[in-house]
UniProtKB/TrEMBL annotation:
GO cellular component terms, semicolon-separated: cytoplasm
Record protein name field: D-alanine--D-alanine ligase
Pathway listed: Cell wall biogenesis; peptidoglycan biosynthesis
ATP-grasp domain residues: 101-301
Cofactor note (record): Binds 2 magnesium or manganese ions per subunit.
GO BP, one annotated term: regulation of cell shape
Primary location: cytoplasm
Similarity annotation: Belongs to the D-alanine--D-alanine ligase family.
Uppermost EC category: ligase
Organism: Kaistia soli DSM 19436
Catalytic residues of the enzyme: E15, S141, S279
Subcellular location: Cytoplasm
Amino acid sequence: MAKHVAVLMGGWSSERPVSLNSGKGCADALEVAGYRVTRVDVQRDVAEVLARLKPDVAFNALHGPFGEDGCIQGVLEILKIPYTHSGVLASALAMNKARAKDVMAAAGIPIAESVLMHRLEVAKAHPMTPPYVVKPVAEGSSFGVLIVREGALHPPQQLFAEDWAFGDTVMVERFIGGRELTCGVMGDEALDIIELVTADGGWYDYDAKYSDNGARHVIPAPLLPDVYQSIRNLSVRAHRALGCRGISRADFRYDDRPDGTGRLVCLEVNTQPGMTATSLVPDMARHAGMSFPELVSWMVEDASCGR
């Protein structure tokens, strides 16, 4: 009998639309691969729903708070339902960008200078000389990210907004110019590296991530062999340092401009990479000769509890 897979999607974070898109694509591919699939739009009663369904595996296609910060992972551990992607600790750790950077730095992974601050304090005066980036400490898909360019007269005034929805604690991080690169890890093996080139030459924001023709995925990224291998090695090291399992994706900036600093830094590790038609890990898998149904099947067979 085919395994019964509950595909968890939706939820209530800012990334709900992305999660619904990811979940539909994964559910469709799992059905093509021969699994019995139940699509679950996650609400607050998810524990009761899953206890009633009794799936063999939960495919976690949630994004953002509750879905990738250790919360749903804890629910699945209590219910003893094997699930895809990382466990409770790695999920919680990677979701908190500041804590994840502490762990990566201790593992010898190069990171950008940063500081945690209350958003209202940041809004009053530059916390560091521009250029710098202001990031919510525990959001994904570039929600709430603000770039302060060189020569800016004041910090981003959006931080004063009463309807700011991304938490009061933000991370202020030194902006690293140059190229945007990302590398997936599958199991304990690095996939190939993608360079992200946006249609308008800007940064890789929400629209560039999820709109058609928002960005080109250049794979393999045109890098010198030693740089290419260094990024792959750092991606695996970050995956292991944070305790990830299954699939993760590490994002980098590399400043190889003629007048640049030459710096390579790891920005963050994503334990729940997007799985939409425009997402990066599916592109890396295709480049490695793996179809989308094969990729999601591997993830289901890799699912587990307690690690």
